[in-house]
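Q: What structure does this chain adopt?
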Amino acid sequence: MRKSKAEKAETRKHIVEVASQMFKSQGIGATGVGEIMVAAGLTHSAFYRHFESKDELVAEASTASISVFVEAAEAALAKGPDAFVKYLQDYLSSKYRDDEMGGCPVAQTGSELALADAPIRQGVSDALERLMEMALSLTDGSADAEAETIFTMSALVGAITVSRLINNPRLSEHIIDVVQRRVANQPAAPKKEPRAVSKTRRPLARA
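A:
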């Protein structure tokens, strides 16, 4: 019996969710389509009823994964500057480093996505710009504030990535602690109530 559109959409969503977790825990290249479908409780052949290629699944799974971060950031931003900074600090934790919170798609698959074609990583690219725009909305919007925002957002991902690579547990924790305390002192420009953040894409970098 043919599935309804709603059932097919739900199955596709399930595949994306399973793939998202597997890509983050095992790596994109190391995770095969057949393996994903088995984990999703489906047959390998069913994959092509939902996706044209693995690249399409990678793009959708990566976008879905980072969208969780964007939605959480938007909710924090709506509560004010302190809540948003707290959200950034919470990201810098052993729970994210150790995948207890589902893992960070940028820290865990960023190196692979960076080598992918632009359309595959477009969703992640848009989400990262969105996160930086939200952080920038809490500043005076100056060039210095933009530079500090870019530094801070890059430091967040960098801290998690490096702390995951370090075998020394004490140093790994220290890296997270150092960057977390640094973020607590941000932004450099005076904090204020967030300015409206446009949904329309705009370049962050100034000429």
